[in-house]
Amino acid sequence: MKKVLFTIVFSMLSITNIVAQQKIPDTHLTSNVVAARRTEITLPKVNGYTCYKADFHTHTIFSDGDLTPRQRIREAWHDGLDILCLSDHLEYRRQEQGMLNALAPYNADGKPYTYYPANIDYVNSNRTMGVMCNFDAIYDEAKAFIEGEGLPLMLVKGIELSREPFKLGHFSALFVKDISSLYNRDIKQALRNVHAQGGLVIHNHPAYRRTTSDKSNEQAELYNEGLIDGVEIVNDMTFYPKMIRRAIEEDLIMIGASDIHRPTAETYGFRGHFRTMTFILAKECTEKAIREALEKRRTIAYSGDQLMGEEGLLSDFFNAAIECQVLRKDKSKHSLQLRLHNSSSITFRIAHNGAIYEVEPFKSVNLTYKGATPRFTIENMWHIDYQHPTIAVEIDK
Ligand SMILES: [Zn+2]
Ligand SMILES: [Zn+2]
To answer: How far does Cα 83 stand from its chain's mean position?
Structure first.
């Protein structure tokens, strides 16, 4: 018995000794998941074009957004975008008062810079701009960051021009060369400056702080002079149905944009769908090809799992994403057994015979179609005059 006890105590001492001798590392990773992850949004090839995902309307701390340009860039890549524009307000910066208050004691003369608040009336006031901000330098830094990180993301140079009262509104200037020289107190001249640089002008959130999305007299002057190239069909979660007719009749680019100020994880992540964006149907993701696609108006706006645009393009997009196979023909009942397979990341809500069939991403649905040639109304697609398109489905392609 003594011997047994001795053996047990001896073995315990040896174990303690081994543990004490074991090398304790200086650092220990609590998770080995360090790779950056991206949400891949799979979209079909439509009429030979790739659907690129763009958000042309975002804000950073250099106007009234909560994130830095670098954070916006990483976020855009995580969110599955191919194209991003940091379109800060040229005329006002919500964050600057706080920053200037903090920095004021360190100015050479001890005085803070003059600050003009965000609600300034740019039309009637004698004031011009708040603190000057070098947006060209911010763009260069952001572009260098993308290149340094090796992110496959096209950064479009742009800015938002804002005019109050709201009968004028807000406009994004895209593909501009020199932001610092765009500003003019007269909005018409500012937009002419955008065109002189080869840029495009998008009319943002057309009903913002107004009771209508119809043109005010002041806005009509801008349109009549040909200063507007595109219009936001949807901004964040607000869809402007009347803008589709305007875009078709006046040959304008249809845009969907997030106008994101907070982190997208906070705004869209918890709702369970992708951020608001524009799908651009282009040959390749180069500035030339994207500009060509925009000028030919090959865009579809996306928001809240809904798609908005021109009927023909929506129909082509649907038929490219959905493969329709006839499983069985029932001649006596004049019906077809169909299998619809969705090879995209977009859900389609198909109405037929009083029912809604949800065809989720990368899933199939079998249904009975009453009739000989399938046509479906797509409930989460919108075209002219607040209507859902009714699409003739290509079979066994
Ligand atoms: Zn705006
Ligand atoms: Zn904005």
So the answer is: 9
Judge residue 199's burial from the number of C-beta atoms within 10 Å of its C-beta, 0-12 exposed, 13-18 middle, 19 or more buried.
buried
**253 touches 294 (CB < 8 A):** yes
**Angle at CA 327, nearest 5°, toward 321 and 328?**
140
For the CA of 57, the nearest ligand: 2
**256 Cα: distance to centroid of ligand 1 (angstroms):** 13
In what helix (H) or strand (E) does residue 324 lie, and over which residues does it extend? strand 322-330
Distance between Cα 158 and ligand 2 center (Å): 12
Q: Domain coordinates of the chain in residue numbers?
A: 50-309, 322-392
What is this structure's pTM? 0.89
* CA 266 vs CA 153, 197, 274, 288, 360: distances in Å: 22, 36, 12, 34, 24
Give, in order, the Cα–Cα distances in Å from 177 to each of 13, 35, 93, 140, 157: 75, 35, 21, 11, 7
- What is the 61 CA–ligand 2 centroid distance (Å)? 12
Under CATH, domain 50-309 is a member of which superfamily? Metal-dependent hydrolases (3.20.20.140)
Q: 153-166, pLDDT tens digit by residue? A: 999 999 999 887 67
pLDDT band at 379 (very low <50, low <70, confident <90, very high): very high
pLDDT digits (tens, 9 = 90+) for 262-311: 999 999 988 888 999 999 999 999 999 999 999 999 999 999 999 999 99
Ligand closest to 206 (CA) is 1
Closest CA to 323 of 275, 365, 375, 382: 365
Contact 325, 305 (CB under 8 A): no
Q: What pairing do the DSSP bridges indicate for beta strands 83-85 and 50-55?
A: parallel
Counting ligands in written order, the one closest to the CA of 261 is: 2
How many angstroms does the Cα of residue 42 sit away from the middle of ligand 1? 29
Residue 17 pLDDT class (50, 70, 90 cuts): low
* 158, 143 contact by CB (below 8 A): no
CA distance readout (Å), 215 to 58, 176, 223, 238:
24, 25, 9, 17
Cβ partners under 8 Å of residue 317, min gap 6: 44, 46, 51, 279, 300, 307
Each residue's pLDDT tens digit, 210-229:
899 999 999 999 999 999 99
* Euclidean distance between CA atoms 252 and 280, whole angstroms: 14
DSSP codes of every residue in 299-319? EEEEETTEEES-HHHHHHHHH
